[in-house]
Amino acid sequence: MSMNSEGRPTTPNAVTTDEHKYESFSGHVGLRLAEPLIFEIGSKDRTGVDVEEVEGFVSNLGALERTGGTGCPGLAEPDVVRHYTRLSRRNYGIDMGVFPLGSCTMKHNPRLNEKMARLPGFGDIHPLQPQSTVQGALGLMEELSHWLMELTGMPAVALSPKAGAHGELCGIMAIRKALEARGDAREVILCPESAHGTNPATAAFCGYKVKSIPGKANGRVDIEALKAALDDTVAAVMVTNPNTCGLFEDEVREIADAIHAAGALFYCDGANFNAIVGKARPGDLGVDAMHINLHKTFSTPHGGGGPGSGPVVFSDRLKDHVPLPYVVKTADGLSFKEHLDGDNDPSFGRLVAFHGQMGMYVRALSYMLSHGVDGCRQASEDAVLNANYIKACLDDLMTVSFEGPCMHEVLFDDEFLKGTGVTTLDFAKAMIDEGYHPMTMYFPLVVHGAMLVEPTESESKYNLDQFIRSMRGLATAAKAGETNRFIGAPYFAPWKRLDETQAARNPVLRWSPEAEAAE
């Protein structure tokens, strides 16, 4: 085994498919401790807190008073701390290493943003507080709105949507309101075949029929097919730009002109705005509505079901139809407009009960102000540079799906694995043994065995080079016939290859002693 200058093995975790000759009595592997469910280690007869019975206490809950236990496990305080600390060491995140999920932008979250989000007046306000007591928060929301409109070249914005898909819903509802206002009943929305799955889902949810538009061999929208599908039944076209193949729709102005000439409206999926901030403004490209995933473009936390934020910007064609509530200036300061001004109010109505995620607004504005316009532009440039660097370093061993430069993510397919017995899933699982979260697999659907890699601007050349070396090593091993290295991977993760199909179709969501005993 080769050693480095510090006397450490250069390959301390060389992949092997041999079974261990013995298992530890504890179930631990070295200092990587085994961790059962908290229900398995808890007991009803112990707890970290002793609460004495209160003499003379009479409950006023009546029939609502609990008569049995809560079913929660009882643990001593150190057991609770150790349990969750051990779990945290098994949770891979952006603070652990490269997170190359394509189209998801798992980027570094600067700690400055977190500090600002916890400032008194931001981190401790309540949605039912009098608006006179939250003027600073409303001012921040107004400032964020200004910069979102400035960066997109759009005259209006709704901050209230809670995520990208919610933003799509907001945009399509505004489009429907605009069409209704002009007495134009249209029933079809066009979606390119490379669209995010939420696009056709949103259109269908709003009652529209969805018609798919094919792509060209270069991975972009077939504009001739799009033009042929445009008629007086089409309400809108939903296009992702940069698109899900990691490419910029270079005919976007012609697409917008064709859409508007047909009396329809242009919805842009802004999930990939991270690639063009400071470089191109969607409003200048003819877009009428676009959601912005703050967690993808402006670094706020991503994943785990929230907290999310998906503001939507609107063109002049739609600015009067933005949803309630939104911030307005009055003689007494800033406040929310929360109610329609009669039946003739052009807004499509109230989208949410409360306005949105305050912490997300603070983080996003902190990111913008700390970077400045030039810094935001450089972030986009670096994201595109990093993706193209990965592409250039791997295209001799892996199959790049489309020729030419990519944007902020590079798309590979499984052609280079043909005849090896290794699938995209096997390759991705082997990446876990290398210490990397797998890239996005099998998406977009227009490419067979897709592997979508997005490094973002956050990764240094040092980290990219390590990632590239691992990817080249895996590709070489697959082509050399080292199939066993892949088909059982991951070998070094706390949990080995799982039956993902069964986990998705028959998830076990509740632990019970009976189920544990049966197992």
UniProtKB/TrEMBL annotation:
Gene Ontology cellular-component terms listed: cytosol; glycine cleavage complex
Keywords: Oxidoreductase, Pyridoxal phosphate
Reaction catalysis annotation: N(6)-[(R)-lipoyl]-L-lysyl-[glycine-cleavage complex H protein] + glycine + H(+) = N(6)-[(R)-S(8)-aminomethyldihydrolipoyl]-L-lysyl-[glycine-cleavage complex H protein] + CO2
Domain Aminotransferase class V: start-end pairs: 186-303
Pfam families: Aminotran_5, GcvP2_C
Keyword Membrane: no
Record-level GO BP terms: glycine decarboxylation via glycine cleavage system
Top EC class, one word: oxidoreductase
Entry's EC annotation: 1.4.4.2
Superkingdom of the organism of origin: Bacteria
Domain named Glycine dehydrogenase C-terminal: residues: 379-476
GO molecular function, one term: pyridoxal phosphate binding
Function in brief: The glycine cleavage system catalyzes the degradation of glycine. The P protein binds the alpha-amino group of glycine through its pyridoxal phosphate cofactor; CO(2) is released and the remaining methylamine moiety is then transferred to the lipoamide cofactor of the H protein.
Protein name per its UniProtKB record: glycine dehydrogenase (aminomethyl-transferring)
Organism in which the protein naturally occurs: Gimibacter soli
